[in-house]
Amino acid sequence: CHGASHVFVILGASGDLAKKKIYPTLWWLYRDGLLPKKTSFIGYARSKLTVDEIKQKTIKFMKVEKDEEKKLEEFFKLNSYVSGAYDKTEAFSALNKAIDAKGSCNRLFYLALPPSVYESVTLNIKAVCMSKDDKNWTRIIVEKPFGRDLESSNTLSSHLAALFKEEELYRIDHYLGKEMIQNLMVLRFGNRIFSPIWNRESVASVVISFKEPFGTQGRGGYFDEFGIIRDVMQNHLLQILSLVAMEKPPSTGAEDIRNEKVKVLKSIPPVLMENVVLGQYIGKKGGEGEEAKGYLDDPTVPKGSVTPTFASCALFVKNERWDGVPFILRCGKALNERKAEVRVQFRDVPGDIFREGEVKRNELVIRVQPNEAVYMKMMMKTPGMSIDCEESELDLTYDNRYKGVKMPDAYERLILDVFMGSQIHFVRSDELHEAWRIFTPLLKQIDKEKPKPIEYVYGSRGPKENDKLCTEFNFIYTGTY
Ligand code: BG6
Predict the structure, then answer these.
(1) pLDDT tens for residues 309-359?
(2) Which residues are within 8 A (CB) of 272 and not within 5 positions of it... i.e. 6 or more apart?
(3) pTM for this model (two decimals)
(4) Mutate which of 173, 224, 231, 307 to test ligand 1's pocket (most atoms within 8 Å of Cβ)?
(5) Where does the secretion signal sit in this chain (predicted)?
(6) What are 56-84's pLDDT values in tens digits?
(7) Cα 174 to middle of ligand 1, angstroms
(8) Cα–Cα distance for residue pair 166/163, rounded to 1 Å
């Protein structure tokens, strides 16, 4: 697409997502010369703003080096801004005029918007902003939340499907843009050693976790409407699960991969409440600032809210490969560290001949962040005269192995994929349907029964009940999890 002109429209240009992620990402792509040569950017939102004001809002997230200032000026010269309502076709006609002024071009619309305006915005895009000629395309990028449950998500999907073709829709799950998540395909299908052991005969359990060391940071109002299951588990963690558990696709093409992901999701029965632990953080006694504040101390959180900020659950993939193997998903805010990882724990060695209890289970760990790594926990003879065994690692830490290699941000890869028309790392509508099918009964039960989440202290490992859940589902805690 290098020769053609492109216009990238950021809808919701004055909002948080645009400021923290979208503008900085477009700048990095521009700075690194990765965008098609003739690309310009139009911000759109209700407030009356100038490009200069957008610059002031976004610059602190752009990580601009001293010698890049001239380039940054060039970037902002390619930007313009249109203000208008989200539900007025005339306002979108004005936006369209601004796009048309760039000449014949491909059009990308990023909806960095609350879901309440999705419907009117997409109707207006369809009515007045689409590319007019056959040689140019229009692509729409949408972010979660894609609804709150299966029904609302299906309503949104049908609405979008009536307006756009599936190949025009790019549903972002930014975890699919992370290096280690993209590496899962290569790790699994580019190595002979894994395929014979990647199944119920050899794997005891799989744990996929997401931990964040901070709370809602004033975003409590938004968060409270959704809770951690909708915010992280139903999308990011389930997407990772599907890549860990899917069968080998016939090719690396987007449809082949997504067909396999859907198949594996279809084999997962809905999560049962009895296999779930819910938690909510409370302030840390003697802590300072954020740490001293519990979830309910956030003034934007409704009083007495029982929305979980921590959740773990065990679910099962009922197919020939995985039947009986627990997949434990765990996610939480205000925990002791920032970490996202996958742990594949293998079964005990049969017919163990060593001292009782000495031999530990092998574990393959894929650390998504921070400090990307793949390591395998192995038993080794303690070096020297002894004949004892000890646990060690085959360790591929990226900082050592790929020192100095720049790891692109997830949004950089994904936005570039949209320019290139690659949907491999985007969620297809049937994947989304399956993800909601798995979680909707549980979410409805939680909404109805409002169980009180277990309290855990800001900065802790989360509720102890999670450890019990892991033990119950055949995951032996080895100390670093
Ligand atoms: C978002 C969630 O999807 O992912 C946030 O809405 C969360 O609550 C964020 O903080 C985490 O993303 P990352 O890339 O920092 O792990």
Answers:
(1) 999 999 999 999 999 999 999 999 999 999 999 999 999 999 999 988 899
(2) 442
(3) 0.95
(4) 231
(5) none
(6) 999 999 999 999 999 999 999 999 999 99
(7) 8
(8) 10
